[in-house]
UniProtKB/TrEMBL annotation:
This is Exonuclease domain-containing protein. GO terms for cellular component: cytoplasm. Residues 268-306 are annotated as: Disordered. One of its GO terms (molecular function) is nucleic acid binding. The keyword Chloroplast does not apply. Residues 5-123 form the Exonuclease domain. Keywords: Exonuclease, Hydrolase, Nuclease.
Length: 306
């Protein structure tokens, strides 16, 4: 779990303020050879690390020590997988609601896509987001692109460059509990477990909260508030799946370990609340087709992310 701090007013990377901790997995505590080679992390570092609840408490204390107040900072991520998928899943494993600080973030890939001349992001040289952005801005990437500490440091350099060029870097993604796109039946790819984009389509149905685009300027009143139900994190918990994916589970040959570990495959009783049309939801400009969002360029090279 790695954080690099940048002061956006002074456009200054705070080298004196970094958070860097390994997290010991509980479900799969032994690194595969592939993961070890990819990230450069060794098994001993994992064996001696604390589990996530301990590391998260350390992170919260680190925020307090450096006087990071809610609503005064936001996370810059390469895409939406870091928070929507990884963080949400982790807190579901702990049976805890997503904290307010993780309910919104900046997807820097989207920023870059809009800044590239004629939005020609796909044709930039390089295969990954790091390759494309470093080549375009001539920013050297130091380290391992699949190591979160090295990636965090690079994202800070890229954010600084965008700010130096007088570009706006602000919240452009939020989590919400309900979207119209999940009402459209999904034909599950039989090979979804080993096909990245197919897996993302399944996960966007299974996970209670979905990433949505922010079309308007993000204000204090929007902070941590679900754009659908208009409730804060204590009410919009994601514990009870508002759009339970019955049709997805019906197509799975065997139970999903992903869903079972996070208690997402419970067959809830009662009528599906999705069947009730909500006029506000239908007319809400923020209710984008988030499955298209999962398929867009935001997901560059996420399948190898540590």
């Amino acid at each position: 779990m790695n954080v690099t701090v940048i002061n956006i007013r002074d456009k200054l990377i705070r080298e004196d303020q970094t958070f860097n901790r390994f997290v010991r997995p509980v479900i799969n505590p032994v690194l595969s050879d592939y993961c070890a080679r990819l990230t450069g992390i060794d098994q001993n570092s994992i064996n001696t690390a604390d589990v996530f609840p301990v590391v998260y408490d350390q992170f919260v204390e680190w925020l307090r020590e450096h006087n990071f107040q809610e609503k005064t900072f936001a996370f810059v991520c390469e895409d939406h997988q870091t928070i929507w998928l990884n963080a949400q899943y982790q807190f579901l494993l702990l049976d805890r609601s997503m904290p307010a600080i993780f309910r919104q973030w900046n997807n820097i890939t989207t920023v870059l896509q809009y800044l590239i001349p004629e939005r020609n992001y796909d044709n930039l040289p390089g295969e990954t987001f790091v390759d494309k952005s470093s080549n375009f801005y001539n920013i050297e990437f130091v380290g391992n692109s699949h190591n979160s500490m090295d990636k965090s440091s690079y994202l800070a350099k890229l954010t600084k460059r965008l700010l130096d060029d007088n570009n706006l870097v602000t919240v452009n993604r939020v989590l919400r509990c309900n979207v119209n796109s999940r009402r459209v039946p999904l034909n599950v790819d039989p090979n979804w477990r080993t096909t990245f984009q197919s897996a993302m389509l399944v996960f966007v149905r299974m996970l209670p909260l979905v990433p949505a685009v922010v079309y308007t300027y993000f204000t204090d009143d929007d902070y941590a508030k679900c754009q659908y139900c208009k409730n804060g994190p204590n009410v919009c918990t994601g514990v009870v799946h508002e759009q339970f994916p019955y049709e997805v589970y019906e197509q799975l040959v065997e139970p999903s370990a992903f869903a079972s570990a996070a208690r997402l495959d419970i067959d809830f009783d009662g009528e599906d609340e999705d069947e009730v049309e909500d006029e506000e939801d239908v007319n809400d400009e923020n209710d984008v087709n988030d499955e298209n969002d999962v398929n867009d360029e935001d997901d560059v090279d996420d399948k190898d992310e540590d």
